[in-house]
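Blackboard transcription, Thursday session:
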Amino acid sequence: MKKILFLALLTLSIQGLHAQNRWFTKEGTIVFLSKTPMEDIEGKNYQVTSLVDFSNNDMAFSLLMKGFQFEKALMEEHFNEKYVESEKFPKATFEGKFVCSQPIVPTMAGEHKVTVRGKLTIHGVTRDVETPGTFKADGKGLMTGTATFTVKTADYDIKIPSVVRENIAESINITVKMDYKAM
Amino acid sequence: MKRTGLILLVLLTGFSVQAQDLLDLLEEQQEEPVNYTFATFKTTRLINGHSVETNSEKELLFLISHRFGRVDGGAAEFFGLDNATIRLGLEYGITDRLGVGVGRSSFEKLYDGFIKYKVLQQKSGAEKFPFTVTLFTSAAIKTVDWPEPERENYFSSRMYYTFQALIARKFSEGFSLQLSPTLVHRNLVDSVKDANDVFSLGIGARQKLTNSLSVNAEYYYIFPGQIESLLNGEKVENSLSLGLDLETGGHVFQVHFTNSRGMIEKLFATETTGSWLDGEIHFGFNISRVFSLGSPEGSGDSGKGSKKKTETTSDAYSQPSSN
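(Written on the board underneath:)
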């Protein structure tokens, strides 16, 4: 019985250690830009939640589509109602891993180039994505993760009516910036 | 020993599950947001009457409304198209909830001005409320020449006032329903048998067919016994309208059939004389165009958190050239 308790405690303590390698934010920024000769449409979300586990290089992101802010109210309405259908698909998520040439110690200052791979879900459609990214630790408890990549609206079954096709780009640039703190 | 192994296995399994479901862990950290219902209707009008929608802050809406003559005029009148009345209107959002507007109708040379305020908003999620309530009031001046210039005519006799409570619920992504208790006050009426205050109840609905197209219906029921006089020899009827909304970018096109000739409350909620059964219906359309006169500031009532201001390059979304 003692042995079992010991094992249980050991496992729990490993979990405890494990959790200390988790870094978290709920005020991450994701900006998307649709650039066409007709106009640029930019949506900004400042309430992205994200978790990175530096012990096994797992990472996850989640955001509410309705959290995107636009320059014009009509853009926001059309985005939510007609394109991403936020009532039906309220969230976008990413789940994956990053690869780095050496293990990252998030408490030590330094900059690390990484490759992120995983599954991105938007508008109810999940696709594999891969993008280069950067982790930059300031050594004072702040870890900043950044990445820029492109998604195609068609890949996520987002239908653009022909009348506005010239106003909305086929490929959308996505910029990610997360300021993580240890959990 | 077997038991130890089992417990160990359970603990280890628990451990690995925890490691895998980072996303679940993340979602637990998210607070449930307040979900404000948006786009209950496509635009500020259902067909003739106002919808609960108001213009967003600093948005200017230009609205052109046309009603042609009665289709029962036949080929001689080109099914009513020879004869059109028009209303030109401008509406502006002072805030996301408060709006003002002016308009001018060719029929009776009417000028109207209104104030519209969204008092309550339908919402779900962390806070819940089942419907949206918008209060509406307008004043209209009939500037057409007096029919009897020889009698003493007062300026006040040109005035009409409307008060409405617009109550709407978006039941699903596609279906919205609105009730519009309405009071139209007329300073001058034809005879003592006619009420100065006419109460009616508007009922309107829309069903989306696609994300850009919807079918709308609107009915104004005038409570009986209020209007006895004939208007140009015809009985006053309840207003019934059926139409389609088509949205493209910043435009909303509304095409409809209605037995009302006028496009403001005083005209359609007290002076509709067409009868659907007799083919006395009008073809009509509304075209609206939204112009943004600046970015909204502050988070307003949209229930969002911190809003960081950054430079934006986009300007064309609401410019006519973008279409």
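Lecturer's comment: The CA atoms of residues 200 and 222 of chain B lie 4 Å apart.
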